[in-house]
Structure of Crp/Fnr family transcriptional regulator:
Amino acid sequence: MQHTTAANNVPTDGLHAIVRRTFGCSEDLAGVIAGRARVRAHRPRSTIVAGESEADHVHLVVDGHARMIAIAMEGRSSVIEDYVDGDLFGERGLFGEARSAHDVVAVRHSQIGAFANGDFLSLMNTYSAVALAVSRLLVARLDQAQRRLAEGSTLSVRGRVCSEILRLARSGDGVKIAPAPVLAQLALSVDSTRETVSRTISQLEKKGLIRRDEGALSIVSVRRLEELVY
């Protein structure tokens, strides 16, 4: 039988499993950590964290997909980061007064756990697994930021598209992206327009480097796609 939390109607077993995976901890510790989280449901396109709001919580994606988006003065948006099951975000307020840099919105229906900063700091101070998980997170974020900065200044749009396709495939079996990336979202990720990305994808298909399967995008030749990155 699957148990749920009374306040949020979230399956306890699923919450504990995500906590164990994120923090690499025991079932007992997962129960302690999960007990500090307030889990809420967010509809697609709803705002989870508003830009410039007080960064007073650390958030854990229990189930779903969230995205940090920056909006330029002319209204153009750009993807800063994506968050899926087990990812943490909102940690910038842990070590001093801070405000959220950008909006974080739900891409699809999502269950998000929120830890008050004081509670999360207490967990970090008490349990090394929590502190280590945050350290790994920050190192990964720094690596991603450096990669995107380098790609943005050194690669063409085609190169950025090829790099992003390879990155998405490597998060799975290395050759297939399922479901297939939405062109508008792919354009945001590579800081380009939907029209330009659509033309690039069509050119890659004509060259036989990628193939659209039902509900998926498959890489036909990883080596040749890698050669087009630079």
The chain has two domains: 12-152, 155-227.
